[in-house]
Design goal:
Elements lengths: L2 H5 L2 H49 L10 H14 L6 E7 L4 E4 L15 E8 L2 E11 L4 E9 L1 H49 L18 H49 L5 H28 L9 E4 H11 L1 H6 L3 E6 L3 E4 L1 H18 L5 E8 L5 E7 L30 H11 L3 E6 L6 E6 L3
Parallel strand pairs: 7-9
Antiparallel strand pairs: 1-2, 1-5, 3-4, 4-5, 6-8, 9-10, 10-12, 11-12
Helix pairs in contact: 2-4, 5-6, 6-10, 7-9, 9-10
Bound molecules: adenosine-5'-diphosphate (ADP) and magnesium ion (MG).
The site of adenosine-5'-diphosphate has 21 residues, from helix 9 and helix 10.
Length: 458
Amino acid sequence: MPHDAEGRTLRRRLLSFISWPLLVLLGISVVADYRSAVSIAGEAYDSALGSTVVALATRLERDDDDLDIEVDIPPAADEILRSDAVDEVVYVVFDAHDKVVAGDPRLLGLPRPQVANRTILQDALLDRKKVRSASYLYQSERLQATVIVAETTLKRQRAANRILAMTFWPNLLLIASALMLVYFGVRFALKPLDALGHRIAERGSMDFSPLVEADVPGEARPLVRSINRLMGSLDRAGQAQQAFLSNAAHQLRTPLAGLQTQLDLAADALPEEARPRIRHLQDASHRLSHFTHQMLALARSSSEGALISDHRPVDMASLLEEAASDLLDAALAKGIDLGFEAGPVQVEGSRWMLREMLANLIENAIHYTPAGGCVTVRCGRGDDGRVFVEVEDDGPGIPEEERNKVFERFYRVPGTAGAGTGLGLAIVREVADRHGAEVHIGSGAAGGGARIRVDFTT
Ligand SMILES: Nc1ncnc2c1ncn2[C@@H]1O[C@H](COP(=O)(O)OP(=O)(O)O)[C@@H](O)[C@H]1O
Ligand SMILES: [Mg+2]
C-alpha cells in the first residue's frame, strides 16, 4: 500500500487525534506539578530564612538596657550563616541613618521593608546574582534598625531540579501507559473493520452474496448496506446477461441446425456437378455453427452471471461418458480408438460448463490426432488427493513454448492443419478458473502426443 493511503487509515487518525493532546497534557501537568512543588519547597526555605532574620532582630535589644548590638550581633549571625553548607548567606544590620552596624554593606542596595516588625521575603539581585532576601524593620521606642539576610538560591534550584525529575518520570510513565492503552484500544476497536475487509477480500470475484450486517459495528453498517446494494445490482445485471446469452445461444442453434439439414437434403437432391459447391456450403455452415457455439460458451462461462452459487455436485465419470459419447462418431470416422478410464469422483461445479470443457478437450484430441490414433480420457483422484480429469492422445502434441499461448482466445499454433477457431482451450481455461482448478499441458505417456490435465482443488 502506498504511504499516502496508509497515512489516512482510521487507526492513524485516531492515534494522532488522541496522542497529541495527551502529550500536550503531559507538558501542562509536568509544569503545573513542578510549580506547585517548587512553591511548597520554597515556603519551607523561606520560613527558615525568615526565622534567621527574626532571630537576628531579637538580638538587637536586650533587657539590660545595654545597646551594644555591634558586639552582640556578629557572633550570633556567624553561627547562623555557617550552618548553611550549600548557599552563601550574607546579612546586614543598619540603623535609621543607613549606618551599617554589622555585616555586609553590599546589602544596603536591596529592597527594604516599609512596614515595621514584619518579615518581608522577596527575590532580588546581589552582584547580578539571584538571591532570596528576608528583611526586618525593627522598631521600638528606643531603637530603629533594619536587618537583611540574603542567600543564594542554589539549594532551591537543586530542590527544584529534584522535584522536576520526580514529577516528570511518573507523568511520562502515566502518559506512556495511556498511549499504549489507546494504541491497543484503537486496534481492538477497529478489529471488526479489519475482519470485514478480510471477508470482502477473501470472496471470489464472482461471489455477490450479501455481507451479513449483524457482524459489523454500527458505524460500518451503512457502508455494508451500500456494498450489498451494489452487489445486488451486479448480481441482477449478471443474471440478465446470462439469460440473454443462453437465449441467444438457443435462438441461433435452431436456424443453424435447420440450415444444415436443408443443405444435407439439397446435396442429395442436386445433380452431381453441384455437389462440390454444396459441400463448401455444408463446411461453412458447420464451421459457423461450431464457432457460434464456442463464442457463446466462452461468453457464458466468462460472464459475471456465471455464479458460484450455481455450483452443484457433479458426477465426473458420467459427465465424461456423456461428453465422450457425443464425440464417438467423430472418433469412429477417423478410426481413432477412444479409451475410457473413469473413477467414481465428484466435483462441485456447473454441469454445463464442465461439459463444455470436456467436450473441447476431447474434440481437440480427436481433431489433432491422425487417423488410427489413440485417445484416452480419464478421471479420478490423484496422488495428492485432488480430483482430476485428463485427456491424452498420441498425436503431434503441443510444443513446450506454445503451451502458455494456446489458452489465449483465437490463438492457434502456427501451421496447425484443419479448421478451428482458437477458442477451445480458452473455454477450458475459463471454466477451470471458475472452478478454482488448474490446467496443465503435458506430453503423452510415450513422450509424443498431448496430455491435458485439469486438477480440482476440492
Ligand atoms: N490435443 C492436441 N494436440 C495437438 N495440438 C493441440 C491439441 N489441442 C490443442 N492443440 C493446439 O492448440 C491450439 C489451440 O486449441 P483450441 O483453443 O482448441 O483452438 P482450435 O482447436 O480451434 O485451433 C490448436 O490450434 C492446436 O494447435
Ligand atoms: Mg479446438
